[in-house]
Amino acid sequence: MKEIEVIIDTDEIAEFFYQELLKRGYVPSEEELDDLADITFDYLLEKCIIDEEINDD
Q1: Phi and psi of 20, rounded to 5°?
Q2: Most buried among 9, 17, 22, 31, by the most CB within 10 A?
Q3: Which Pfam families does the entry link to (predicted)?
């Protein structure tokens, strides 16, 4: 299987959830969006869809 590099940005995830929830009539708080983004990231890690790589720039 070919390996590709994917960068997951939790701010981007939060914005995606915000837009999608608005379309469905929900208005989440910023804290709720941050929690959803973190949960999504953790889910992707747990399912081995992504690997967490910490850069010391």
Answers
A1: -65, -40
A2: 17
A3: YozD
The mean pLDDT value for 26-47 works out to 94
Query: Around 13, how many Cα atoms within 13 Å sit in the side-chain half-sphere?
Result: 17
Q: What is the DSSP letter of 47?
A: T
Q: Are 13 and 36 in contact (CB under 8 A)?
A: yes
Q: What is the pLDDT of residue 2?
A: 84
CA distance 36 to 26: 14
> Cα angle at 14 between 10 and 38, to 5 degrees?
50
DSSP SS3 for 25: coil
Say what the pTM is.
0.77
Token code pair at residue 43: 């889910």
Tokens of residue 41, six digits: 């990231």
